[in-house]
Amino acid sequence: MKGKTAFISGASRGIGKAIALRLASEGANIIVAAKTAEPHPKLRGTIYSAAEEIENAGGKALPLIVDIRHEDVVQDAFEKAVDKFGGIDILINNASAISLTDSQTTTMKRYDLMHTVNGRGTFMVTKYAVPHLKQGTNPHILTLSPPLNLNPKWFTNYMAYTMSKYNMSMTVLGYAEELREHGIAANALWPQTGIATAAIEFGIGGKDMMQICRTTDIMADAANVILNRDSKTCTGNFFIDEDVMRSEGVTDFEMYAVNPDKELMKDLFID
Q1: How crowded is residue 249: how many other Cβ atoms within 10 Å of its Cβ?
Q2: Cα gap 130→136, rounded to integer Å
Q3: What pLDDT, on a 0 to 100 scale, did the predictor assign at position 40?
Q4: Distance between CA 245 and CA 108 in Å, rounded?
Q5: Is 247 buried (19+), middle (13-18) or exposed (0-12) by CB count in 10 A?
Q6: What is the number of H-type helices and E-type strands within the chain?
Q7: How confident is the model at residue 43 (pLDDT cuts 50, 70, 90)?
Q8: Which end of the chain has fewer CB atoms surrounding its CB within 10 Å, N or C?
Q9: Where are the beta strands (DSSP E) in the chain?
Q10: Global pTM?
Q11: Are strands 140-143 and 185-190 parallel, antiparallel or unpaired?
Q12: Please, what is the Cα angle at 14 between 186 and 2, to 5 degrees?
């Protein structure tokens, strides 16, 4: 990863920041592309605090205020990234909006947010990354989205969210085939279990649910493994973090548990 440049959406906190720090520990350059410029009363981290952590970890950082719903902002972010670091080798599509509500309690404002960020945003950020990735070294696109599991239970209680995340997954299928001839990998990564992030703590289940999750480290380690694979042959996959680490010889996952004494919660879309 030394000297490679990764553009990471939503990298100011959570899984996005964890991946950034993992790559930075090996000397990568990170574009911290996220909306949070000012401290939030509950949610920890801004693009600037994340950039400081990245540089302390051994990488170089460029914090940029980026709302991936806006085309001109995304285009400008890539121009600034290339001006700073000379190119892009890796794209991490991490930014995502969530609302676990059924059809009758999902407001159209929330529906629109999830679909413009998750589906449209991922498509657009990737679209504008591609010309730079074509010039990159072992270029990878990694999207944090689930396998396309059409079990009706995943649509029953939060249809709008499921549709938006599956839109992200369909971009993986499409870009993998479209970019195969250019040697650009497009893969998805999803956790086997719940991951202890602000979405769990403040949006879904509170501190108690955090106890039955794994830390973001497992997603960061799995992402690092994937991004080091040959982009010409490792593409079009829907990876699960635990499977990736098992393929690397890891058999003891206790180090990733928030509370090793608790039974872990399976993540959404994992039967």
Answers
A1: 6
A2: 10
A3: 65
A4: 39
A5: exposed
A6: 11, 7
A7: low
A8: C
A9: 5-9, 29-34, 60-65, 90-93, 140-143, 185-190, 238-240
A10: 0.94
A11: parallel
A12: 55
- Beta bridge partners, 32, equal 8, 63
Closest listed residue to residue 35, CA positions, set 14, 66, 62, 63: 66
Tokens of 221: 């380690």
Residue 110 confidence (pLDDT): 97
Residue-level pLDDT at 203: 63
Arch. (CATH architecture) of 5-256: 3-Layer(aba) Sandwich (3.40)
Question: CA distances (Å), 99 to each of 117, 195, 213, 235, in order?
Answer: 12, 16, 19, 30
**Whether 238 contacts 193, CB under 8 Å:** no
The contacts of residue 16 (CB under 8 Å, 6+ apart) are: 8, 9, 10, 34, 92, 94, 95
Domain extents in the chain: 5-256
Give the active site residue among 161, 166, 175, 256.
Answer: 161
What is the distance between the alpha carbons of residues 114 and 164, in angstroms, rounded to a whole number? Answer: 6
Q: For residues 156 and 189, give the distance between their C-alpha atoms in angstroms, rounded to a whole number.
A: 23
Q: What does DSSP assign to residue 145?
A: -
